Amino acid sequence: MVLFGREHVERYQASDGEEGHDWLKGTTVLLLTTTGRRTGKSRTTPLIYRTDGPDFVVVASNGGAPDSPSWYKNLTTHPEVGVQVKGDRFTARARTASEAEKERLWPRMAAVWPDYDEYQAKTDRPIPVVILQRTA
Question: Which InterPro entries match (predicted)?
């Protein structure tokens, strides 16, 4: 069974990632919880990730849509986020990768999810790479 959206979040949380961490085509997924920039409400999104040393890396692709995903807009306003990787729940500070960091990290992310290259090709906006640095 392939999990998506709310069900993915619920099953991941309930099973400490036993369901939902390992996803499609050999990818791994974390849960990112952001604070709504307008509502102040918590929103949790499952995202493909890779590690970079002690940090976690995600891509704000939105499937190549013209606009960034809501979770990315939220963290640009409220960079303190919640992260769950399997049973490990922690807070982190989210930031957009610099151009040099993106140049290094993008190929690693596209290697695990080649669709990222297709998404970038179909949109005029530069797709952000986000670095999640554990704070607690």
Answer: F420H2_quin_Rdtase, Split_barrel_FMN-bd
Angle (nearest 5°) at CA 99 between 27 and 52: 40
Residue 29 structural domain: 5-134
pLDDT digits (tens, 9 = 90+) for 76-94: 999 999 999 999 999 999 9
29 and 12 in contact (C-beta within 8 Å)? yes
Query: What's the pTM?
Result: 0.94
In the numeric block, which tokens belong to residue 58?
């995600």
Whether 25 and 47 have beta carbons less than 8 Å apart is answered as no
The type of residue at 43 is: R
Greatest Cα pair distance, the chain, in angstroms, is: 39
* Helix, coil or strand: residue 56: strand
Residue 79 belongs to domain with CATH number:
2.30.110.10
